[in-house]
Amino acid sequence: MNLKDLYIEFFVRHNHKQIPSAPVVPENDPSVLFNTAGMQPLIPYLMGQPHPYGTRLCDYQKCIRTNDLDSVGDTTHHTFFEMLGNWSLGDYFKEESIEWSYEFLTQDLKIPADRLAVTVFAGNDIIPFDSVSHDKWLSLGIPEERIARTVEDNFWIAGESGPCGPDTEIFYFRSEEEIPTSFDPEDSRWVEIWNNVFMQYHKDSEGKVTELPNKNVDTGMGVERTTAILEGVNDNYESSIWKDIIEMISTISGLPYNDENKKSMRIIADHMRTAVFISADPAGIKPSNTDQGYILRRLIRRAIRHAKNLNMDINSDWERKIAILILDKYKTYYKELEDNYQLVLDVLKTEKEKFNRTLEKGLREFEKATRNKNNIDDITAFHLYDTYGFPIELTVELAKERGITVDEEGFERKFKEHQELSRTASAGKFKGGLAGDGETETKYHTATHLLNAALKIVVGPDVHQKGSNITSERMRFDFSCDHKLTDDEKFKTEELVNKWIQEGLEVSVEEMKKEEAIASGAECMFIEKYPDIVTVYTIGDNVSKELCGGPHVSNTRELGHFKIAKEEASSAGVRRIKAILE
User: Fold this and answer.
1) 86-123 tens-digit pLDDT
2) How far is CA 432 from CA 29, 167, 249, 345, 469, in A?
3) What is the DSSP string of 73-86?
4) Residue 104 contacts residue 7 (beta carbons within 8 Å)
């Protein structure tokens, strides 16, 4: 049985309810481009909102992280991964959580206990040593020398303030060498496989820590890493998750999967899998130069570059063959892959053809930049990389054929500067989490509902929300539309939203069955993401009715004055409005 099935079956047996995997593109969450952890879609419920499925939950969640892109191809890094999780929302706490984790690993997965070790929170001046977790592990048979106490690695908080608490991490000795008697968390042979976070405290903006009245448990286990362990391999890419994809790449390229070709084959496998899931997401992401579309474009183009490294005919249908294998492999678990099967293939093909033309332009640019020169400076090398997607390796290879040198050190400096800028920009994107929804963001959540309703009246009933992004400074709203809005349409939309704000409409909330909500006329962006019982927000008598996770204001008068700052194209058939509340 598949690991995901075993996991869900185990926790359902222990009275948990399975919840659907959320889309990879979060709805109304400004803190991230993608869901980066299993707990992220559950933030409102970890903050105290009742979950329609109850207090014991479990799932497998699609996650995407691109902060370690340069590490993809080693033994453990992937841009897309699946996370297994179980949660207690004010129900059971440390002892039950630890006991079930140990039971699942040693009994259901048959992992030998002598290959396991754990870390617990050592305590500091404010929060005491986590003796409950420590003693529970001892009672289960984990010896004292296999329980390491740390401070920084065993305390979890989202941002600077908010819910927080100790965690206990479970490690597996992934090596054929003799298992050490004592556990050293710094020894790379010990690999973390499961993390149990205990949200026990609240830290305010001044650093004061108090006990939470309702304590939560949030656990996470990586599917790729655990599968490799169960199959007895010390490298994630050697597991069944990747073997068939890499074998297909080897067949298409006509090259063996050896040390020379290994990294390129792994990068293609990883990036194609991630591109498939982003393209299939209900948010309708298309390759572009901003946000999620930029990540999608970068992954597809990086895969194409490595396909070229393997002498694959990049004008053939190689990407289609790999994508079909991935779609068929995962569609049983994720319905959107079945629903958007052809769309995924079209997105990949279109971007491949576009980049193939760009590559040709890049080659011409290379010829022009190197004419009558014996050196490629750092600016030119980085321009080839940044504009035409030329990796430095390709520039060096082409230069070598012509007897030209390349300022590789200068390129690396410029590349690091670029990375630092990207990291700084991403920090704004990735901060938030549990601490993300303040008063201003809450107002913008409600404003998106009013904007959606106004566009349906002004532009037409076929307008549907395709995505949104909210920060404390502005809201961004993507919607289906086949034309640029006229000045009159923008004016009427703005006027209508402000009319509703002035009217002081009540915002009400109720829970109901999903089918009843849809039958009542409630709209939602990602119907697949919602459980059987949903939360519906209604504004006024019949202005707006939408399924949403919230949060929202209680009266529209709280919003102030709505102003459209910009209207522009987002992707084919999708327009984007940026607006502010004054």
Assistant:
1) 999 999 999 999 999 999 999 999 999 999 999 999 99
2) 9, 20, 39, 34, 13
3) TSSS--SEEEEEEE
4) yes
Burial class of 218 by CB neighbour count within 10 A (0 to 12, 13 to 18, 19+): buried
Radius of gyration of the chain measured on its C-alpha atoms? 26
Tokens 């359902």: give the residue: 12
CA distance 107 to 102: 8
Output b/e per residue, 188-214; b: 16+ Cβ within 10 A.
eebbbbbbbbbbbbbbeeeeeeeeeee
Burial of 296 (0-12, 13-18, 19+ CB in 10 A): buried
β-strand pairing of 162-173 with 562-571 = unpaired
Q: What is the pTM of this model?
A: 0.72
Q: Are strands 155-157 and 147-150 parallel, antiparallel or unpaired?
A: unpaired
Cα distances (angstroms) measured from residue 352 to each of 194, 299, 301, 321, 357: 38, 11, 7, 13, 9
> What would the pLDDT profile of 328-346 be if each residue is shown by its tens digit?
999 999 999 999 999 999 9
Residue type, 234: N
Each residue's pLDDT tens digit, 231-256: 999 889 999 999 999 999 999 999 99
